């Protein structure tokens, strides 16, 4: 039953969840209510913290269709639980009203008697009877509408009834970031388990008359809660302001007529009119008429204007070309929510219209906001180990709890005292100030990062950045300069290359097809009199010296089609004009002498196709021309073979090996039968065929000055660097060599993967990047070289190969990413997939990009740092004001410093609680305890002061090859803590026992009141009458001795655990910490040797001067022993201790914890790895019942 009713929602998506249905059970609710009353509300808190317990305790299991409550669990590693109440939208009496809506949403409603749904994370899930599951209504794409259907059925708009009904399901078109009230935030914060524990502690201390310490903890908690509330509230307000700045605007909507409406009323299927002066898009919409120039920096981080054209309408006859509309595949025709439409162009008599596709949180902007509102929890070993360590402390507290009860019963202690003191030992063992102490180092690191221009929106990621051992870099704009410079051109005539030329700005070339292609094949536009567009297009067009003119709004409205953009050369490049005869008409003369090219149609650049194309016509010519520009390999494949030079591959390789970016141009003379109207509807593939190769444009992309030095620093620190770019493979390899990512002596093996075709399995061919034909002949010689040579290799592959390997060679993918250094021609989603593949082998992955197409990868990486300050940086945990990669080592250094600080603070706080636990346990044996003000002095004056100053150590000035540990549960760390615990226990026990053997020692009893009587004798008879009896047995020699010894131990342990080099600056450079420690030492010595009655009364201490000297001897001996153990022998003893722990745990054979290290060990003894350049790896499909050898899904074959 349970297995059958376990449903999956959001299948194969990032937020995939398992869903179970429950029905509220009244008798269970009654039993739970009784339990809540009996436990004083604690059971209610427990059910609040554990939603799955709440549901299972109050509900019974039922079918998902009949559920009143659904319980969801994420399928990721975190296994988070969510609870949602199922609601009913429409009852049977109202179902007739939705008949108009059923046309659109019948796949979800299926004529149900009631429409059931639940809301989770700002998303509504509706019950679908056809699939017997809850599904999300995203928008128009749910119907899988084709491009022609968008034009034929959705271009006229909706009626008022249709619009009203759809709004019932899709809701208001608004990305509502509700700012919670302070009261709600307060309740949520206060109900945190930590604050509930603090409340319990305060009540307990108050019952034991520790009022001052309880008040101090309450004061600290109030400040902590207030600070947290202010920070959370500020983040909500900032996000709300960012989202709502342009979320509600007035729009023109096509109903029966064109009406004005608020953008909040829009629903999928509405047709909105895009104003000519531009707007901020309030939804995702697909253009069905006209053209728009859009700034998409909010989503992509790229401020370059993008031209959006209307969605092609294949028509009823062209069923093959009539694909289903997809936002991803048709993004060149889609206007995304939050993007800025700068300009529109339109037909005469027609407006620029767009069909609304998605609204609200379903839009691109809405999904980005959802990812910020509901982020995935940070998975880091330190935090998991911290919880385990706390559980260990709780176990120790349990032992003390039982010990105190047994001891008290044996000594006939009153029941009230037994309860208070036994519970009090739990509050001692688990320190209330731990979370605040752990946060301090991260806060300080965040401030230091801000000072060097790195801003952080996810502070918990700072610690994780300390573990980064691999960083992926985008190339253009990140490793290299943003701008491209034209290095030269190399034209082709009659299938032969000319010599390279510096530029095309020559009068001899002004009327050539090569220059015409450079002048027309781009997506540039005039915005406020300035040319804007892709930097490459801009450099290419500027190199021609031509002039671009666009039709004004008035000119466009006079024609029945869009007026073409016109380009023409400057007059100084044109040949001398012939003399005009007197009988010639002036206008005809101007027309004949003018040389202008009008751009009739544009096929925008597609990263998937790696090319763009335009159709243009020369003024006065009847036939049109098609011009093509794109990746050389792609352009050459679309050209006639006789027009492509035979040495094309060699010439291209020479340029790319030198690091140049190469663009190829092609041209085609169109048939005269292709009129203006036919060109607007012709298929792109038909236009981009049988082209004539024109030549190459060679662009130079220089490395940024800081790139090589930073990569060298990372390499010295044993941090892998990987290049992920959309550029050409060989260009990327060349840049990788130039910047030092690939050392000169290392080999690069290119993996060319081909998908299955004509019944043949998918295969990978391996070749060298450097002149493969020559290296093939030398391959046998390489085999007899030293074995270490094979460790010095790097894999390089294109996006296409990566896609084939991901799909058909899953078990080979992890081996490839182990040495993969260059990933070229990668699409944005492939960059994200690569990050996930690297994380799957346990790399801590950083990603550095300029924001363009890198948002997904920046968000998915453990530490993503954006070099763009645009809105896209919201998706990245870190944003750098410095537009180069020098921020990466700085971030890693600060991350390492913060991580080590967290380790130091946690170890110190653990020792603090254990030291205090030892003191209290020893004092319990004589029915004594530490005093209220002694607790106060230790926790406030010593612990908090030391914790908040020891976290101030700045990061070490350079990256070192050694990496900090990733977790607390490791041999060396545990052994260092255990040794310090044993030393503390030993010295406190010796002090406790030794003081009882002194000649002046008197055993305390309520009658004798030993210490107080000696004190009264010292102070004189006038104090005897006013002195109160010490009923709590605080002021005795054992208490005083342990108070002083433990106080010195806290300070010494802080110094021992305050690590400096190689991840932090030495502690002696942290002057607040040094001043605090020295000040506390001076104060302790002062009150020991020069007692002040007011201070002694306040701290409830007393003693003999000679015993004070003995305590100093104890403190100095403890300090020397601890420091000696830490500084001189720590490495060797820790290593020996770790080996002992490993032996005790039966870990005789050392196996690397990280998968990539384990994989590297396996590959080091694999004779077939890396694949030789003379081999091909082919996927094999095993027969049923006959699994492949060694579980491998591929086989390596030598080329014939």
TrEMBL record:
Name the NCBIfam families for this protein. Answer: ATPase_P-type, P-ATPase-V
The record's family statement is: Belongs to the cation transport ATPase (P-type) (TC 3.A.3) family. Type V subfamily.
User: Where located?
Assistant: Early endosome membrane; Late endosome membrane; Recycling endosome membrane
Assigned keywords, A-Z: ATP-binding, Endosome, Ion transport, Magnesium, Membrane, Metal-binding, Nucleotide-binding, Phosphoprotein, Translocase, Transmembrane, Transmembrane helix, Transport
Chain intervals with Polar residues compositional bias: 1189-1200
Q: What does this protein do?
A: ATP-driven pump involved in endocytosis-dependent polyamine transport. Uses ATP as an energy source to transfer polyamine precursor putrescine from the endosomal compartment to the cytosol.
The protein's superkingdom reads: Eukaryota
The organism's taxonomy opens as: Eukaryota, Metazoa, Chordata, Craniata, Vertebrata
- GO biological process terms, semicolon-separated: intracellular calcium ion homeostasis
Q: Major location, coarse class?
A: membrane
Question: A GO CC term?
Answer: recycling endosome membrane
Q: Which reaction does it catalyse?
A: putrescine(out) + ATP + H2O = putrescine(in) + ADP + phosphate + H(+)
Q: What positions does the domain Cation-transporting P-type ATPase N-terminal occupy?
A: 133-210
The record's CDD domains line, in alphabetical order, gives: P-type_ATPase_cation
Quote the protein name from its UniProt record. Answer: Polyamine-transporting ATPase 13A3
How the protein sits in the membrane? Answer: Multi-pass membrane protein
Please state the Enzyme Commission number of this protein. Answer: 7.6.2.16
| Region entry Disordered, spans | 1167-1200
Keyword Chloroplast applies? no
């Amino acid at each position: 039953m349970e297995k059958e009713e376990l449903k999956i929602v959001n299948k194969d998506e990032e937020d995939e969840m398992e869903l179970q249905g429950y029905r509220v059970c009244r008798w269970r609710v009654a039993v739970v209510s009784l339990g809540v009353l009996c436990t004083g509300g604690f059971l209610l808190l427990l059910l609040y913290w554990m939603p799955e317990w709440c549901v299972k305790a109050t509900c019974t299991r039922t079918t998902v269709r009949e559920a009143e409550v659904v319980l969801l669990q994420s399928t990721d590693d975190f296994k988070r639980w969510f609870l949602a109440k199922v609601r009913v939208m429409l009852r049977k009496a109202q179902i007739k009203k939705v008949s108009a809506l059923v046309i659109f949403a019948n796949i979800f409603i299926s004529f149900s008697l009631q429409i059931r749904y639940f809301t989770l994370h700002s998303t509504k899930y509706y019950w679908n009877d056809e699939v017997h599951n809850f599904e999300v209504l995203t928008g128009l794409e749910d119907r899988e509408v084709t491009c022609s259907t968008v034009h034929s059925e959705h271009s006229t708009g909706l009626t008022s009834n249709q619009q009203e009904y759809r709004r019932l399901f899709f809701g208001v078109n608004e990305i509502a970031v509700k700012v919670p009230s302070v009261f709600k935030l307060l309740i949520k914060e206060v109900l945190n388990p930590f604050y509930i524990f603090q409340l319990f502690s305060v009540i307990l201390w108050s019952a034991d008359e520790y009022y001052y310490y309880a008040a101090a903890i309450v004061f600290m908690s109030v400040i902590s809660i207030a600070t947290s509330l202010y920070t959370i509230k500020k983040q909500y307000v900032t996000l709300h302001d960012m989202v709502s700045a342009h979320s509600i605007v007035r729009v023109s909507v096509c109903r029966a007529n064109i009406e004005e409406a608020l953008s909040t009323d829009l629903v999928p299927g509405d047709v909105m009119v895009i104003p000519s002066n531009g707007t901020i898009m309030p939804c995702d919409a697909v253009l069905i008429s006209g053209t728009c120039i859009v700034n998409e920096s909010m989503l992509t981080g790229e401020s370059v204007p993008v031209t959006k054209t209307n969605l092609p309408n294949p028509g009823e006859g062209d069923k093959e070309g009539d694909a289903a509309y997809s936002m991803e595949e048709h993004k060149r025709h889609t206007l995304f929510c939050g993007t800025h439409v700068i300009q529109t162009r339109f037909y005469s008599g027609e407006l620029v219209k767009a069909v609304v596709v998605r609204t609200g949180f379903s839009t691109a902007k809405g999904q980005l906001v959802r990812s910020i509102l509901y982020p995935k929890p940070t998975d880091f070993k330190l935090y998991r180990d911290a919880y385990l360590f706390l559980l260990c402390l709780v176990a120790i507290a349990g032992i003390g709890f039982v010990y105190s009860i047994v001891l008290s019963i044996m000594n006939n202690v009153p029941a009230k005292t037994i309860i208070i003191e036994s519970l009090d030992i739990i509050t001692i063992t688990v320190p209330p100030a731990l979370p605040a102490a752990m946060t301090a180092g991260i806060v300080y690191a965040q401030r230091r990062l801000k000072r060097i221009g790195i801003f952080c929106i996810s502070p918990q990621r700072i610690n994780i950045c300390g573990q980064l051992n691999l960083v992926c870099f985008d190339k253009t704009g990140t490793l290299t300069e943003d701008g491209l410079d034209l290095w030269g051109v190399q034209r082709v005539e009659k299938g032969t290359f000319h010599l390279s030329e510096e530029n095309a700005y020559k009068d001899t070339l002004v009327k050539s097809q090569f220059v015409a292609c450079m002048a027309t094949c781009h997506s540039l536009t005039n915005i406020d009199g300035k040319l804007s567009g892709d930097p490459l297009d801009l450099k290419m067009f500027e190199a021609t010296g031509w002039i671009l003119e666009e039709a004004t709004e008035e000119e466009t409205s006079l024609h029945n089609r869009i007026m073409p953009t016109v380009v023409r050369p400057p007059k100084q490049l044109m040949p001398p004009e012939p003399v005009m005869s007197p009988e010639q008409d002036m206008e005809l003369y101007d027309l004949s002498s003018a040389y202008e090219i009008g751009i009739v149609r544009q096929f925008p650049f597609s990263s998937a196709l790696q090319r763009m194309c335009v159709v243009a016509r020369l003024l006065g010519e009847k036939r049109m021309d098609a011009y093509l520009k794109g990746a050389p390999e792609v352009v050459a494949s679309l050209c006639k073979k006789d027009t492509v030079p035979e040495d094309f591959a060699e010439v291209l390789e020479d340029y790319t090996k030198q690091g140049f970016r190469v663009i190829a141009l092609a041209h085609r003379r169109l048939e005269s039968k292709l009129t203006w109207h036919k060109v607007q509807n012709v298929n792109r593939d038909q236009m981009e065929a049988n082209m004539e190769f024109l030549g190459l444009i060679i662009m130079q992309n220089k490395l940024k000055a800081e790139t090589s030095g930073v990569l060298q620093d990372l390499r010295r620190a044993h941090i892998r660097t990987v290049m992920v770019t959309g550029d050409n493979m060989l260009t990327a390899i060349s840049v990788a060599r130039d910047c030092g990512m690939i050392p000169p002596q290392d080999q690069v093996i290119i993996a060319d993967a081909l998908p299955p075709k004509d019944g043949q399995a998918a295969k990978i061919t391996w070749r060298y990047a450097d002149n493969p034909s020559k290296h093939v002949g030398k391959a046998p010689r390489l085999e007899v070289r030293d074995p270490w040579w094979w460790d010095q290799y790097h894999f390089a592959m294109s996006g296409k190969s990566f896609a084939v390997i991901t799909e058909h060679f899953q078990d080979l993918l992890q081996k490839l990413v182990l040495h993969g250094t260059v990933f070229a021609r990668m699409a944005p989603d492939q960059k994200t997939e690569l990050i996930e593949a690297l994380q799957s082998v346990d790399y801590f992955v950083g990603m550095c990009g300029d924001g363009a197409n890198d948002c997904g990868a920046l968000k998915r990486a453990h530490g993503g740092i954006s070099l763009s300050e645009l809105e896209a940086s919201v998706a990245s945990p870190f944003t750098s004001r410095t537009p180069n990669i020098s921020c990466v080592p700085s971030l890693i250094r600060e991350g390492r410093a913060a991580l080590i600080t967290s380790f130091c603070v946690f170890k110190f706080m653990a020792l603090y609680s254990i030291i205090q636990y030892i003191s209290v346990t020893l004092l319990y044996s004589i029915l004594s305890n530490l005093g209220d003000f002694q607790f106060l002095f230790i926790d406030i004056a010593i612990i908090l002061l030391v914790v908040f100053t020891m976290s101030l150590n700045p990061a070490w000035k350079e990256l070192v090859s050694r990496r900090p540990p990733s977790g607390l549960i490791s041999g060396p760390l545990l052994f260092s803590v255990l040794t310090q615990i044993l030393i503390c226990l030993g010295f406190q026990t010796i002090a406790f026992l030794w003081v009882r053997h002194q000649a002046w020692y008197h055993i305390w009893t309520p009658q004798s009141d030993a210490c107080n009587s000696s004190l009264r004798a010292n102070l004189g008879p006038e104090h005897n009458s006013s002195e109160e009896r010490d009923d709590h047995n605080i002021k005795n020699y054992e208490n005083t001795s342990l108070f002083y010894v433990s106080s010195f131990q806290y300070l010494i342990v802080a110094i021992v655990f305050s690590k400096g080099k190689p991840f932090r600056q030495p502690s002696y450079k942290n002057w607040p910490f040094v001043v605090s420690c020295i000040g506390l030492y001076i104060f302790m010595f002062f009150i020991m040797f020069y007692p002040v009655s007011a201070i002694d009364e306040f701290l409830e201490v007393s003693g003999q001067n000679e015993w004070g000297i003995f305590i100093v001897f104890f403190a100095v001996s403890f300090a020397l022993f601890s420091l000696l153990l830490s500084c001189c022998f720590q490495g060797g003893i820790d290593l020996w201790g770790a080996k002992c722990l490993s032996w005790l745990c039966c870990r005789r054979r050392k196996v690397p914890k990280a998968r990539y290290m384990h994989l590297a060990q396996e590959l080091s003894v694999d004779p077939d790895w890396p694949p030789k350049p003379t081999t091909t790896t082919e996927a094999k499909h095993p027969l049923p019942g006959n699994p492949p050898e060694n579980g491998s899904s591929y086989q390596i074959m030598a080329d014939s």
